[in-house]
Structures are given as C-alpha cells and as structure tokens.
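Entry:
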Amino acid sequence: HQDYSENPMIKYSRFVVAAFALASLALSGCYLVNSGTISSTPAKGTNVTASASDWGILHLSAPQGLTSTVNGQLLGQCPSGKVSNISTELATREFFLAQMYTVTANGYCQ
C-alpha cells in the first residue's frame, strides 16, 4: 500500500488542477447587452461608430464618462458636428469580482 499524500507529483498535480479551476472561474464571465436607439427617420449620411470601455468593482462603482467619451468620438468623426439616428449599446461582462462596461454607439454624420 502506497501513501500518496507524501508524493510530490500528486501534490503538484492537485495544485495545477486547483490553479486552473480558479483561473477559469476568475476569467470566465457572463455577458449582458442593453441597447437603445434614438431615431425617427430613415438614416442619411455617412455611418460613424465609436466605443469606450472601463471597469467597475462589485457593482459598487460604475465607470464614469463612457457616454461622453463615445459622444466626443462620434462628433470627432463628423466634420459638420451633427450626428443623427444614434443607436447605443451597453455591454456588461461579469467577472468574479469586477465588471467590464463597454458603450458602443452608431450614427450617421449629416
């Protein structure tokens, strides 16, 4: 009868399995998408797209300024400064202790 509790290879393999399981749990995430559109007329003009991401912790702190960053990016792509038919998307990816928020917007430069 062998005593496996003293075998270093058994201990090492258990450690590797536990580390892999913990990493898989920490790096996996659920994905939630919220979407909205501000539009009442058919789209005209050049399509413009912008996106910004940031992290939050435990749903206690949400990132600030994502929408204004995306708005500035949209306007920066449009020489006239007028964007219409804007659709926005908030994607939230849930990790073990943190959330990654991504705001994406599409519109048409007039």
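Strands lie at 30-38, 46-57, 83-94, 98-109.
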